[in-house]
Amino acid sequence: MTLTISKLGDRLGAVAEGVDMNALKAGDAEALRGALLDNLVLCVRGQKLEPQAYFDAMGVFGKQMPQPSASSNHPVVKDLLILSSEDRDVLGDGKRIVVGAAWHTDDSYRAVPCSLTTLYGVEVPPTGGDTQFVNMYAAYDDLPDATKARIGPLRVVHKYDSSRKGNKIAKRTAEDMAAMPDVIHPMVRTHPVTGRKALYLNPNRMESVVGLARAESDALLDEMTAHATQLKYQYRHKWRQGDIVVWDNRCTMHKANGDYPQGARRYMLRVITEGTAPA
Ligand code: OGA
Ligand code: MN
To answer: Distance between CA atoms of 207 and 212, rounded to whole angstroms?
Structure first.
């Protein structure tokens, strides 16, 4: 088996074929990490892994970290999160919930968000259920110089239950909520590995821009979000069973789609890796 890497989208996304994550060769590990840094989203195709083996294999990309959750941790491998068509808002109205259905970057409600997310498509629907991604380096690079100068020093309050959020989120216990105080992140961050600047937005968690009046803050956040989510910055992943898709939350946003046929099953296993405070 020989590793090949090919581009998927025009602006981001690549696919790796010819690897078995159960028995990765040393040289291939380096190539996968490089392909992720260059392409921001990397799909490793055709994998067949037991839950623990999947969790362990993701160590090639970074140090795995726990994912506290009300209800969706894997029963055997507790640091794996399950995302599935069976997800329900168990502490809230009990209805179906599609995790991540609005544009976001993972974990920005934490002071130190994860760097990468990996999602393993164990069961994917026959149609629908795509994941969309945008390139936040490109969205930043294309801004007019005056806008770059304006937003460069700005900082943004992020919170778990933002009043601006675009999708329903699962209800959490009061204790959980208390453990997630608001945090402040820069609007533009420098990727700690590539050194490139990226817009750092999370339309789902951003509450307000520090120091701006509400109306001005809302207008700026809306403007930046509309800019960054344009089709020209996107790659849309159509899942195949056995795909492991890895993305870099420091320079991308993504969005789930709950549009698959009723009764179709979507079952994904998720790992996140440790990051650094955005700066
Ligand atoms: C996530 C996420 C998108 C999807 O796992 O963080 O947003 O398509 N997933 O399931
Ligand atoms: Mn997400």
So the answer is: 11
Give ∠ CA 268-63-6 in degrees, rounded to 5. Answer: 60
Provide the 3-class DSSP secondary structure of residue 154.
coil
Which of 67, 83, 253 most suits a substitution to test ligand 1, by most atoms within 8 Å of the C-beta?
83
Contacts of residue 147, defined as CB under 8 A and 6 or more positions apart, other chains included, come to none
pTM of the model: 0.96
CATH topology for the 4-273 domain: Double-stranded beta-helix (3.60.130)
What is the arithmetic mean of pLDDT over 97-104? 90
Domain boundaries, the chain: 4-273
CA distance linking residue 254 with residue 235, whole number of Å: 9
- Kindly state if the Cβ of 255 falls inside 6 Å of ligand 1: no
- What is the band of 63 on the pLDDT scale with cuts at 50, 70, 90? very high
Q: 131 CB under 6 A from ligand 1? A: yes
Enumerate the β-bridge partners of residue 261: none
